[in-house]
Structure formats: structure tokens, C-alpha cells
Amino acid sequence: MELLKQRIRKDGTVKGNDVLKVDSFLNHQMDVALFEEIGKEFLRRFDGCGVNKILTIEASGIGIACVTAQFFHCPVVFAKKSQTKNITGEVYATKVESFTHGKVYDVIVSKKFLGPRDKVLIIDDFLANGAALEGLIDLVNQAGVQLAGAGIVIEKAFQPGGDRLRASGVKVESLARIKSMSEEQGVEFAD
Ligand code: 5GP
After folding, report:
1. What is the mean pLDDT of residues 3-15?
2. How many Å lie between the centroid of ligand 1 and the Cα of residue 175?
3. pTM reported for the whole predicted model
4. What is d(CA 65, CA 114) in angstroms, rounded to the nearest whole number?
5. How far is it, in rounded angstroms, from Cα 146 to Cα 118?
6. Ligand 1 centroid to 95 CA: how many Å?
7. What SS3 string covers 28-79?
8. What is the arithmetic mean of pLDDT over 78-90?
9. Quick one: which atom of ligand 1 is closest to the CA of 126?
């Protein structure tokens, strides 16, 4: 998606060799007009897949998922990072290791909001090692939900998550795929 790539080139900053900061438009301050274009592009890529629910993970997936859901005319469910030690039988639960914080979170979704009647599109801001996406897919499998695929805004294609998930049969659509990046050279896109 050219508009997104231009924006990353203009406003993204690289930290170290593997963290891209896009908090001026994507995951802190949010450019809602850009989100609208992102939502339209996800619809183009998943149109006709029968999506009736969007699943994301708090916090930075929520804004993108909500704007995207307006084009799919469906609700958004976000998986919550739970502090609760005793998880009851009312939720599906999994563990996700955070790429940016290096912590392992318990992540939950209420059983009320995901079930076999659903066809789910997962939306997230970044795909790196794939832990967040694999956690969400684990929740989807526990709920017996059909998975339409995953829509990712920025995939760091030099990290292994995208290749592994595609090899396992998941339809992963990333709107900007980064081949390499560094503080000196900036960002180079894969396609
Ligand atoms: P993964 O689980 O695929 O390793 O990482 C995905 C999650 O980590 C995303 O939900 C995103 O919040 C965060 N993340 C991964 N890489 C980056 C990055 O380069 N920049 C930012 N801002 N977040 C990232």
C-alpha cells in the first residue's frame, strides 16, 4: 500500500535494528484518515471471505480494527491482557510473549463473544516474530471459529513470524512489508 509506505518513510523512525517507531500516526497518535484507507485496503483483500467478526489484541490493534470494522459492517472483539491469576471457565485464554516489552502476558477473550458461528479476521498493527498472531489464532481454535486470515499493517519480513504463519496455511495480508531497516539506512520495503 503505497500511501502507507510513504508515511512510514516520512514519519517512521528506526530504533536499533529491529524496532520501528510509528507512534506519530499509528499506535500512539492515530491518523484516522490513514486508518480509513487501511480499512478499505483490508476490505479489498478479504472481500467475499464471509467475515462477520474482527479480532485484535489490546492496545494498539484496537483503533485500526474499529475503523476497519466499519467497512466489514461487523463488531470488533479485542483480546485483553489479563492480570487475573485465577482464570475461570468463562474465557478462552492463552499466553503471548510481547516483542516490545519482553514480558509474557495471559491473554483472554470471553466465550460469549467468539463461537463456531463466527468467521474471524484478525487485525494487528505489527507482525514480527508472530507471537501475538499465534496467540490470537490459539484463541480462535479454542473457540472453534473459522479463520478468514490476518490483516497486518506493518510486517517486518526479516523476522520469522510471517513466513511461519503462511507456511502453516494462514492467509496473512500485510500492507507494508519491510525487508530490512537500520538507524543509518532507514527502511527498505520487500515489495
Ligand atoms: P510479534 O508477536 O509478531 O513478535 O510482535 C507483534 C507485536 O509486537 C505487535 O502487536 C506490536 O504491538 C509489537 N511490535 C513488534 N514489532 C514492533 C515494532 O517494530 N514497532 C512497534 N511499535 N511495535 C512492534
Report:
1. 98
2. 15
3. 0.96
4. 16
5. 6
6. 15
7. CCCCHHHHHHHHHHHHHHHCCCCCCEEEEECCCHHHHHHHHHHHHCCCEEEE
8. 78
9. 9
